[in-house]
Design goal:
single chain; 125 residues; mainly beta; 7-stranded mixed β-sheet; 0% helix; globular
Amino acid sequence: QVQVVESGGGSAQVGGSLRLSCAASGYTDSTYCMGWFRRVPGKEREGVATIDKYGSTTYGDSVKGRFTISKDFAKNTVYLQMNSLKPEDTAMYFCAAHLRPAAPCSILYRGFGYWGQGTQVTVSS
């Protein structure tokens, strides 16, 4: 059973930075995809970024150029570096993973089967 656990959320000011971490356990094969999604109450879940086992990434348009997803393969940990934060980045951020090498590793993919509990990010002016 795969588990993913997020950490690193909190508060930041506009223009500031935060880094989220997501540790995956219970899985030993590197052929999987991990990603970050966010949700604001009353709105649909939004894909933020994904990274596959080769290090290929996808980003949502709203975060391109500001957020960077990276992965420490040795630690099975994925990071989301968030810079130039805006109030609209305020959301609950979720880490997710899927184990399907034949499936796309993309923020548009709906088959992520493993989710963390989420970590809150609040950006204020």
